[in-house]
Amino acid sequence: MKDTVNIGIIGLGGRGTGLLEMILKMEDVTVLGVCDLYADRANNGAMLVQNAKGNTPICSRAYQEILACPEIDAVVIASAWESHIPIAMDAMKAHKYVGMEVGGAYSVQACFDLVKTSEETHMPCMLLENCCYGRTELMVLNLVKQGLLGEIAHCSGGYHHDLRNEVAFGEQNRHYRLRNYQNRNCENYPTHELGPIAKVLHLNCGNRMLSLSSFASKAVGMTQYIKNNRISDLTDMNFEQGDVVTTVIKCAKGQTIVLTLDTTLPRAYSRGFCVRGTKGMYEEQTDSVFLDGIHDKFDFNWREQWGNAKEYYEKYDHPIWQEFLKAGIEAGHGGIDWIVFRAFFESVKSETQTPIDVYDAAAWMSISCLSEQSLSMGGIPVAIPDFTNGAWLYHNDKGTGNYSLD
């Protein structure tokens, strides 16, 4: 097992720079290369490395220069959504471990190509879905594994986040969301709750997603926001992205999943995580657990039980979070960024499979382009491919270390 990991970071916008600053606090990780299409971002990344670690990294606008460095073991991809899969494929061909930031895919073929590249090169590719390591999500996963919620029949969740400011000022901030909201209508950010739900439902490990249907509301939120804030540059701009997109997924074992994208209307942040089983449920909106035979008397007075999930953490906090809290570390979205990156780096150090693998990445990311197809045809069901080619029936090689989710 390696003592240290040498990495390159590709993409240094707001997200990439924030991740770089966090990674530089990890003693066993050395950043040997930084890259961004914009020279000022790349130069800023190099300066952060020099100030924090003392070494001068490769600083480039071409990611191929990072991949050409033989000392680099792994790359972190935090560039625009459109570039994730092409860069990941080139990185695996260069025999680098891949840690890929979240985002949806633009074609089913690209997802198949990602899987094929990983299989042919024998290089792991991990989707860095931090919400899989959320304390609540992991506690609920533990509740499910312990049988408290019974047989799971339905899950829901989504990305409920007011992004109007970020989208509107995409040109000034050189952010990719603007062009996506202009030109696409789909579930463009599916993985924040699909990831945790996938682990609850054993997707790609004895279960899989079969089909989806997607529906979108009208697109009026961005137009009104632009009018209200008198953003003259965007006055005549049309937006294809519906304000609220609802996607219903059917699974091979009979469960249903509802995902909601809600990012261009005023609202509070939420991921809407909900798990329903034959013995009870967890609901994020009220942060509460309802167990059959225990909470029935509160049926019509459930407000009294809002927030009762805190009672379950002491007994059912997931071992990953128990260890994390002992260490007293907090970095990035309340700690989940730190944990997902530790999961990735530990896999690189031990040269083992990552806990979120390339089949997960392909299946979860494919929801974007498949929802786009369904929406364009009025919500007609669309088949979700089996990216494991039948291996979901027995596949369980998801990493067996301290960060395993399976």
Topology (SSEs and partners):
Blueprint (H helix, E strand, L loop, with lengths): L4 E6 L3 H10 L5 E7 L3 H15 L4 E3 L2 H5 L6 E4 L6 H10 L3 E4 L7 H14 L3 E3 L7 H11 L6 E9 L3 H5 L1 H4 L3 H7 L7 H10 L8 E8 L4 H8 L15 E8 L4 E7 L11 E4 L2 E4 L4 E4 L18 H7 L2 H9 L8 H15 L7 H19 L5 E2 L23
Parallel strand pairs: 1-2, 1-4, 2-3, 4-5, 5-6, 7-10
Antiparallel strand pairs: 7-11, 8-9, 8-14, 9-10, 11-12, 12-13
Helix pairs in contact: 4-5, 5-15
Structure description:
By secondary structure, the protein is α/β, with parallel strands linked by helices. It folds into two domains: 5-130, Rossmann fold; 131-317 and 357-393, Dihydrodipicolinate Reductase, domain 2 (2-Layer Sandwich). Helix content is 37%, strand content 18%. The chain has 15 helices and 14 strands. It has helices spanning 14-23, 39-53, 63-67, 84-93, 108-121, 135-145, 164-168, 170-173, 177-183, 191-200, 221-228, 310-316, 319-327, 336-350, 358-376; strands at residues 5-10, 29-35, 58-60, 74-77, 97-100, 125-127, 152-160, 209-216, 244-251, 256-262, 274-277, 280-283, 288-291, 382-383. The chain has an eight-stranded mixed sheet, covered by helices on one side. A six-stranded parallel sheet has the order 3-2-1-4-5-6, sandwiched between helices. A hairpin with a 4-residue loop joins strand 12 and strand 13 (288-291). The longest helix has 19 residues, at 358-376. The radius of gyration is 21 Å and the shape is globular. It starts with a strand and ends in a 23-residue tail after the last strand.
Defining key terms:
Rossmann fold, 37% helix, six-stranded parallel sheet, eight-stranded mixed sheet, 406 residues, Dihydrodipicolinate Reductase, domain 2, 2 domains, alpha/beta, single chain
